[in-house]
Amino acid sequence: MTTPAPASMPPCPHPAVTALRRSLHWLLAGLTPAGLVALFLGLWGCLAVYNATFHLAQPLAFVLRQGVWLLLGVTGLLLLARAGAGAALRRALPWAAGAAYAALWLVLHFGVRVNGMQGWFAWGGVFVQPAELAKPVYVLTLAWVLERTQPWRREFWHGFLPPLGCLTAWLLPLVLEPDFGTALIYALTFAALYWAMGGRFRDLLLLAAAALPVTGVVLWWKPYIWQRFAGFLFPDRYAASFGWHVQQFQHAVAAGGLTGQSWGKGRWSESFLPLGYSDSMFATLAESIGFLGVLPLLLLLLAWVWHGCREARRCPDVFRAATLLGMVSLLAIQGLVHLSVNLGLMPPTGITLPFLSYGGSSLLSAFLMIGIAEGVRRTLAPLQSPPDGSTVQT
To answer: Fewer CB in a 10 Å sphere around the end CB: N or C, the chain?
Structure first.
């Protein structure tokens, strides 16, 4: 009887191939549902940018640049979501905060001026905005300060002034650029996070009252801000100047109606709406796909806030709760401000719509914030409830 030949063994994969597979598996495990939504919005943003620029001379140039930043953003999201929010994040915070804060000051001396604001570094046609990339670092710094002042959160001197000092330090270079739109996002994020972490609402009212004379000085220093308010309040009176942008918002949104004019057929966004691919992205989308098309954006914004607040209640320490709430608050506030401006509820601010507007720094910053928030969420126990005396308000 003949002995059957042994079955051939499958070839062993090369160690480099095995290592690559493990690395990819490790990374893709960080693609949580929130990360998938962010990826979907980023891809939708590339389509929206093409819709807003296809009538220009080189529309694909905008989309390709946005695609490169999208790839960088997704990579950063996966790395941060897998890294979690442990000791490594705390150890890296001083270095990240120092680099981000230094960049805000360096751009005042070595940056380029665009539309009257010196807020970008430029290398070979690539523009980087430090104020956008500093957003996740600013939230982490504020969370670190709130953690250390938490025992005195109901006191003015020890509980309110240190976080206020942190806010002031970050706002100063932004005001000098001047980038008042981003400064507004930073300030509103501070107010939302301070109150959510147990701070007194009375302190925020005092801060608002103290900011009134500062606002008067700013209006005297930069008259164009008052002109924007005048155009917002009386768009018909200043239709040829300050109210032009506001009127184009109204025309574009109204032209979209319920179902929109279809992709690539937005008359107002193509011919009259300034910066339809960035500052006016929501109005451009509203004209193209109508109210039913942009409604999912509003629902996703609300779902993001609900998701963040629910997960923050499970955080066992102040730093992680403040980090999670800060990332959620900043993205939600930025989206809300952009929508309010495009719907004619606020004066123009130059704020982009997260994930959808053209702009590499803004897109990368949004993905990094999602990655940090998901990294915090992954470190929480499934059934963990906040300890007694939790400071997260609902």
So the answer is: N
Read off the tokens for 270: 């193509």
Beta strands in the chain (DSSP E): 112-114, 117-123, 126-128
Other Cβ atoms within 10 Å of 10 Cβ, number: 6
CA–CA separation, 257 and 292 (whole Å): 9
End-to-end CA distance of the chain: 80
SS3 240: coil
Burial pattern 182-204, b for ≥16 Cβ within 10 A else e, equals bbbbbbbbbbbbbebbbbbeebb
Give the tens place of pLDDT for each residue, 51-89: 888 878 787 889 999 999 999 999 999 988 887 666 677
Rounded CA-CA distance 25/3 in Å is 42
Pairwise CA distance, residues 71 & 373, whole Å:
19
Contact 252, 283 (CB under 8 A): yes
Q: Give the integer Cα–Cα distance in Å for 303 and 306.
A: 5
